[in-house]
């Protein structure tokens, strides 16, 4: 019945559901975080971290409902996430929309360790969401322009320190570390401004992925290279299509990559390794660009 409502009512229902469930789950996580802060004893800290993780998984199920609440949406998934909750994994994904986070929550809600996202520092001040993510030890990253780094060189490497601290915390609880390697959402304007060599992607930033592998490479069981495509949604923001009940298809390609010794090294101090890792990531992005072309062609064929 909800699928037959006019668009304004669908937007209201979807937004209310997403906001309300986020607020409730966020507050539950924060309550757990308060106990974790007040009782800083290792056994209790680990217990509260696992409890917060379980509460966070509830949010994954809630976000999964959002995709079907006012629309009939089809998932087209190639590859699989045949892994287990008690492992450690690294996800590399392209970034088209804020909906990407909900897609990853849908994919990981059952059999995957709950994801931790690298977030922009400004999100720390979003009511409930920021504090909830802080409780879950998600890293908040600051981005500095070249001009600012020239004026304040002591800020150089701050993101590296944040990555190191966060990954050190992830070692104590099964985690899927998520890195949107492009660092920001794709838009045609950003694509043109940055002179990206890829058709559908921005140039990836290698630092975050390399440092996560350097710190946790011996613990990660695999890299999950995930490509997300929303065919037919190039004219308007994907989040609008989701809220208005017009998101019909999501195409996802999942490739499981082994972690080889060549991917682990001192990215900051070893120029040879840095060049090698950047070359590897750029090659992955070339393949991801081709995958997007293939998925878009498949979507056109499916919709004929």
Automatic annotation (TrEMBL):
Keyword terms, alphabetized: Acyltransferase, Membrane, Transferase, Transmembrane, Transmembrane helix
- Give the residues annotated as coiled coil: none
Signal peptide range: none
Q: Which domain of life is it from?
A: Bacteria
Q: Which InterPro entries match?
A: Plipid/glycerol_acylTrfase
Q: Which residues cross the membrane?
A: 12-35
- Domain Phospholipid/glycerol acyltransferase, chain residue ranges per copy: 89-231
What's an example of a GO molecular-function annotation for this chain?
acyltransferase activity
List, alphabetically, the PANTHER family matched: 1-ACYLGLYCEROL-3-PHOSPHATE ACYLTRANSFERASE-RELATED, LYSOCARDIOLIPIN ACYLTRANSFERASE 1
Protein name (record): Acyltransferase
Per the UniProt record, the source organism is Idiomarina fontislapidosi
């Amino acid at each position: 019945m909800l699928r037959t409502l006019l668009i304004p009512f669908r937007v209201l229902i979807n937004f209310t559901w997403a906001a309300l469930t986020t607020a409730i789950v966020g507050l539950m996580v924060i309550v757990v975080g308060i106990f974790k802060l007040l009782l800083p004893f290792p056994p209790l800290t680990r217990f509260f971290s696992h409890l917060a993780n379980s509460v966070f998984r509830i949010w994954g199920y809630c976000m999964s409902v959002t995709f079907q609440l006012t629309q009939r949406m089809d998932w087209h998934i190639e590859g699989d996430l045949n892994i287990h909750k008690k492992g450690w994994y690294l996800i590399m994904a392209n970034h088209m929309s804020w909906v990407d986070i909900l897609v990853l929550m849908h994919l990981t809600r059952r059999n995957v360790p709950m994801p931790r996202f690298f977030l922009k520092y400004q999100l720390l001040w979003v009511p409930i969401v920021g504090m909830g993510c802080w409780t879950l030890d998600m890293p908040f990253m600051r981005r500095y322009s070249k001009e600012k780094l020239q004026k304040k060189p002591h800020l150089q490497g701050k993101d590296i320190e944040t990555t190191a601290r966060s990954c050190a915390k992830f070692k104590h609880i099964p985690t899927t570390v998520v890195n949107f390697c492009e660092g920001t959402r794709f838009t045609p304007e950003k694509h043109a401004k940055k002179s990206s060599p890829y058709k559908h992607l921005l140039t990836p930033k290698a630092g975050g992925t390399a440092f996560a592998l350097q710190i946790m490479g011996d613990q990660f069981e695999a890299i999950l290279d995930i490509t997300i495509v929303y065919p037919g949604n190039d004219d308007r923001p994907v989040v609008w299509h989701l809220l208005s009940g017009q998101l019909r298809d999501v195409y996802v390609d999942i490739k499981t990559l082994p972690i080889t010794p060549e991917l682990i090294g001192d990215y900051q101090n070893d120029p040879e390794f840095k060049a090698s890792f950047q070359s590897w990531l750029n090659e992955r992005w070339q393949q991801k660009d081709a995958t997007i072309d293939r998925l878009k062609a498949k979507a056109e064929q499916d919709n004929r």
